[in-house]
Write a structure and sequence with these properties.
It comes from Deinococcus knuensis. It is an enzyme of class 2 (transferase). Its EC number is 2.10.1.1. Helix 1 (about 35-45) crosses helix 6 (about 330-345) and helix 3 (about 230-245) packs parallel to helix 6 (about 330-345). The strands form seven sheets. This protein has a seven-stranded mixed beta sheet with strand order 1-19-21-22-18-14-17, sandwiched between helices. The protein has a six-stranded mixed beta sheet with strand order 8-5-7-6-10-9, with no helix packed on it. It has a five-stranded mixed barrel with strand order 23-25-24-26-27. The protein is built from seven helices and 27 strands. It is α/β, with parallel strands linked by helices and about 425 residues long.
């Protein structure tokens, strides 16, 4: 459809499909798989820059290089408990009716290790994390001890070598402990600190421009007229981009006009990618689709998935553009299963759970049905329409149903937690 014509006032009855749909097969893939869509999107994204950040600023970033241990942990063989350190052989046979007496010759605590050697019949009071003194090879916890005079202690059970933490038992100096590509969560940042690193190399965030489209879309808070909807896509997608570690460039909203869309896209200068919602399906006024097909470059149109099939990936003057469907559920689900994995390099995390209800299959599409979680099982949420936005808020998971493979109650299924 030429963009110079007035699409709002056609001379005759409106065409049900754009003209290019009746032409020979397009020079780009149609109906790609979910995995193909992820791969093609990831291939268009620019190579990620790296930067070095202090640990306090690296939460949520992706590690850009391997981290080796600069020290061993523990740095010395130490006690896992408060109690006494002794020779195991001296404590065998200890029991409440027949306690074993040892002579206390000192103590070892974190930061102040005992400097002597534990001999036969001797022990040292020791505290959690304190170095094990030479000669000792086992620990008896304080709960199993009774004082016996100023320098004696009675053991009501044998000392155990299992309560000793050996030097380097966690990691050793020089060992690669963290590998590039890890998302830096709180436990991983704590581990990086324990390895001895005050700062870490991380991937710089991708700058993603975000644009919502549609004449019917208005900002929340304004009065609605018949047929209008509030712009929920830009709010949800912005939050998901931030959660994915991206820097968001908000382009606002553009109406259904080729000129307005092109002007909005042209404002995305400096972005690494552009994410749009709406205008990519089969309708007469899906101008985002038209712009990419007629004036840009298209990598694919449509994905074999539901919800979210009418997505399009292309480029505009060297800028990767991924057009998401306008239906809010479709838009957010496509982001979750395609866009986020491509941006982060991490596939969606899945669990294998038992289906409490059946989940139907589609003959030619992978279905991502919304489901509720209860007692380690998943049940069909019920309302699966692409416009039922509250379903993504109420449901706790997406059940993955491969093409043509229905799920019966009692089957194990792959589940993406929301």
């Amino acid at each position: 459809m030429p963009h110079g014509t007035d699409a709002r006032t056609p001379a005759g009855p409106p065409d049900p499909y754009p003209a290019f749909m009746t032409a020979p097969l397009p020079p780009f893939p149609m109906h790609v798989s979910v995995q193909e869509a992820r791969t093609l999107l990831a291939a268009l994204l620019p190579e990620r820059r790296t930067e070095t950040l202090p640990l306090a600023q690296a939460a949520g970033r992706t590690l850009a290089g391997d981290l080796r241990a600069l020290v061993s942990h523990p740095s010395a063989t130490e006690s896992a408990l408060d109690g006494i350190a002794a020779r195991e052989a001296d404590t065998l046979g200890a029991a409440p009716p027949t306690p074993v007496r040892l002579r206390v010759i000192g103590e070892s605590r974190a930061g102040a290790a005992f400097t002597g050697t534990v001999g036969a019949g001797e022990c040292v009071r020791i505290y959690t994390g304190a170095p094990l003194p030479p000669g000792a090879d086992a620990i008896c916890p304080v709960e199993q001890l009774l004082d016996d005079g100023p320098d004696g202690v009675l053991l009501r059970r044998p000392a155990s070598p299992g309560d000793v933490r050996h030097e380097g038992g966690d990691f050793r100096t020089g060992e690669v402990v963290m590998t590039a590509g890890l998302l830096l969560t709180a436990p991983r940042l704590a581990l990086a600190a324990a390895l001895g690193h005050p700062q870490v190399p991380v991937l710089a965030p991708l700058r993603v421009a975000l644009l919502s489209t549609g004449d019917e879309v208005v900002p929340p808070g304004q009065p609605l007229t018949a047929g209008q909807v509030y712009d929920s896509n830009s709010v949800g997608l912005r939050a998901m981009l931030i959660e994915a570690g991206c820097e968001v460039i908000p382009l606002g909203h553009a109406p259904d006009s080729p000129e307005a869309l092109q002007a909005a896209i042209d404002r995305a200068g400096g972005a690494d990618a552009l994410l749009t919602s709406g205008g990519v399906s089969m309708g007469r006024y899906d101008f985002m689709r038209d712009l990419l097909i007629e004036q840009g470059r298209v990598s694919f149109w449509k994905v074999r998935m539901r919800p979210g099939g009418p997505a399009i990936l292309g480029g505009w003057n060297g800028l990767p553009v991924f057009g998401l469907p306008g239906n809010p559920v479709s838009s957010l689900v496509v982001f979750h299963v395609i866009v986020r994995p491509a941006l982060t390099g991490q596939p969606p995390q899945t669990l294998r759970l038992r289906a409490a209800t059946p989940f139907r299959a589609l003959p030619d599409k992978t279905a991502f049905w919304r489901a509720t979680l209860q007692n380690g099982t998943v049940s069909d949420y019920g309302q699966q329409g692409s416009g039922i936005l509250r379903s993504l808020s109420d449901a706790g998971a997406l059940v993955i149903v491969p093409e043509g493979q229905p799920v019966a109650a009692g089957d194990d299924v792959d589940v993406i937690l929301l």
